[in-house]
Structure formats: structure tokens, C-alpha cells
Amino acid sequence: MPKEEITKTLLTSSLEVAVPLWVESFRNYSWDKLKNVMNESQEVFGECAEAVLYRIEGKSAKAFNALAKAIAALSYVPGGIEIFGMKWHSSNKKNNNS
After folding, report:
1. Is 32 within a domain?
2. What is the pTM of this model?
């Protein structure tokens, strides 16, 4: 298996575990709080995005968590988010989106 395929498989497998945990922790967040999560995640991810694909000590975990948090927060947007061949869609009573 090519290295790129291994990296994608590891990334998607890890996201399958991490994103639902973040989704659950965001379940009662307001839209404003979700937007803050997305903005913070974008800032962190922008600083070290390459660390998700290429292991960089001190940055890879930070970048991965920012990505997982952003996906989880975006899953609450109407229609959800599709990324890396996975579809994420969440709803909560506070935001009342389905």
C-alpha cells in the first residue's frame, strides 16, 4: 500500500473516533460558541496543517485535534460536512438544525 494511502487510512480511522467525541461535547453549544470553535480551530490548523500528514513533534496532535474539532463543529451546520470520503451531520436542540 502506498504511503499516501496508509496516511489517509490512519487519518480517517482516527477521525472516526475523535470527531464523535467532539460532536458530543459540542451538543449543547450555541451557534456563537460553535463559530468560536471553528475560528479557533482554523487558526490552529492554519499554523500547522502539514503536521496532520507529516509527523512533526509538538504539532501533529495539535493539528489533528484542530481538524477533528472543526469537522465536529461544522457537522452542526445544515447539511453537515463531507471530507475525506466521510459525511458528518449533527443536530442539537439548542441550534435546532436537522
Report:
1. yes
2. 0.87
